[in-house]
From TrEMBL:
Protein name stated in the entry: Geranylgeranyl reductase family
One Pfam family named in its UniProt record: GGR_cat
GO molecular function term, any single one: FAD binding
Top-level taxonomy: Bacteria, Pseudomonadati, Bacteroidota, Cytophagia, Cytophagales
Listed InterPro entries: FAD-bd, FAD/NAD-bd_sf, Geranylgeranyl_Rdtase_fam, Geranylgeranyl_reductase, GGR_cat
Domain FAD-binding: 3-172
Alphabetical list of SUPFAM superfamilies matching this protein: FAD/NAD(P)-binding domain
Digeranylgeranylglycerophospholipid reductase catalytic domain location: 204-260
Length: 412
């Protein structure tokens, strides 16, 4: 049985980032994962500019180090395909120059990206990494803190502070922190790897297709190194049950028969199976800490409700959790009241954009408006530039909320 001040449960992007920031502050931690790395994680594998920023915050040389990875494909933008079939191409940076600019995003299998982070962790003497250790239950200790139990109910670890970063199916989040899985704020997702998909973008733009007969769900094709592609679908769980959608059947139906996909997949080969996993969305503010614990990443439901992006938000929460640990150890205060500093810091950074994405998610209820925006923007360079800048400029993105934005668009 191990005793520690700080234990991090889960070594995905949230947990690994917290461990690295703690190490930077000279604080030791125990990082526990049931998997042995490298390990797969069902995901779209798209890493936004926010991920690159978070890598830089861990260490200024990390973005450059990651860009040298064979398994990371630079991506320069997104193609949105509207319900009416309008293609709106939005570069992450307007007028980008591939030879000079650093890429704003990457696509890299999580098998590789998460292992890249774990390789950084392994270089830090402050972090003790335990792989292949599954935590099955939790008990509160009389003196404060938690005992982490194995499958045989044996106590494995005792810790004063627990950073819960064990993903979308976290038993701690559900049973100890009481975070309910609400279908209105939860998305179901499927992912498959293919080779031989035709018509992938030369600059590795990722593709988001909003097909009329699959709304409010979306279909994606994200190019990967070696001519492979990450292909998947996502749909709000409330819509899945209301419409009784069989996601796997729908995904294969679209690949086999949708006019926009059929030709492109005619020589494509499915590699491995089609795997599913949940996306706890951050479209609702929740309590993400309590006596002696904090919830990070998916365990705290922090995924962007419009884009499905969760890696960067997990890393951001990991960074703020490390800061809170520092404060707690200094003050020797691990109480619910003191922990609120963590909730405040995370939502201060993320709530504005999560709320906006919730509103954009609702745009999918108005497919005709989506078509109109896409159609106008594909012909109007100023509008296309504005939308492109919205990726980096939240104030600009706010305009999408204003009816005047759409009125001007419709009558210009
Ligand atoms: C289909 C799909 C597509 C997605 N596409 C994207 C995308 O393109 N871009 C993006 O940014 N995000 C995407 N996301 C979201 C993203 O995958 C998550 O937000 C991200 O993985 C959250 O990181 P995390 O560190 O919180 O948790 P995770 O990455 O889930 O890591 C949790 C870790 O905890 C470990 N663990 C779990 N239970 C235990 C236990 N009992 N004991 C010990 N260890 C345990 C696991 O082995 C794992 O290593 C997608 C999600 C899905 C499902």
């Amino acid at each position: 049985m191990l005793k520690t001040d700080v234990c991090i449960l889960g070594a995905g992007p949230g947990g690994a980032t917290a461990a690295l920031h703690l190490a930077n502050k000279g604080i030791s931690s125990l990082l526990v994962d049931k998997a042995v790395f490298p390990r797969d994680k069902v995901c779209g594998d798209a890493l936004s500019g926010k991920v690159v920023n978070e890598l830089r915050r861990i260490s200024p040389d990390l973005p450059q180090l990651f860009s040298q990875e064979q398994e990371a494909l630079p991506s320069w933008g997104i193609h949105f395909i509207s319900p009416g079939g309008e293609k709106l191409s939005v570069p992450f940076k307007y007028n980008y120059q591939k030879a000079q600019d650093a890429p704003a995003g990457y696509i890299s299998k999580r098998l590789h990206f998460d292992n890249f982070l774990i390789e950084q962790v392994k270089q830090r003497s402050e972090v003790r990494l335990l792989e292949g250790v599954e935590v099955a239950a939790f008990e509160r200790l009389p003196e404060g803190g938690f005992a982490l139990l194995g499958k045989d109910s044996q106590s494995l670890i005792q810790t004063k502070l627990l950073l819960v970063a064990n993903g979308a199916q976290s038993a701690f989040s559900r049973h100890v922190a009481n975070l309910q899985q609400e279908p209105e704020h939860y998305c179901a997702g499927l992912r498959a790897y293919y080779k031989g998909v035709e018509g992938l973008d030369g600059d590795n733009f990722i593709e988001l297709h909003f097909f009329k007969d699959f709304l409010p769900g979306y279909f994606w094709i994200f190019p990967l190194p070696n001519g492979h592609a990450n292909v998947g679908v996502g749909m709000l769980s409330s819509a899945v049950s209301k419409k009784k959608v069989n996601l796997k059947k729908e995904m294969l139906r679209m690949i086999e028969s949708h006019p926009a996909l059929q030709q492109r997949f005619r020589n494509a080969e499915l590699l491995g199976g089609i795997k599913g996993y949940g996306l706890p969305l951050g479209s609702k503010k929740r309590r993400i800490s309590g006596d002696n614990y904090m919830l990070l990443g998916d365990a705290g439901a922090l995924i962007d409700p419009f884009t499905g992006e969760g890696v960067s938000n997990a890393m951001i929460s990991g960074r703020w959790a490390a800061e809170q640990v520092f404060q707690c150890l200094q003050a020797q205060d691990f109480s619910t009241a003191f922990m609120q500093g963590y909730d405040k810091a995370v939502y201060n950074r993320l709530w504005k954009e999560l709320k906006l994405s919730r509103q954009m998610q609702r745009l999918l209820n108005y497919p005709w408006l989506f078509d109109k925006v896409a159609s106008k923007a594909s012909k109007n360079t100023v509008l296309a530039e504005t939308i492109s800048c919205m990726f980096n400029d939240l104030d600009l993105r706010e305009r999408l909320k204003q009816p005047s934005f759409y009125l001007k668009l419709l009558f210009n």
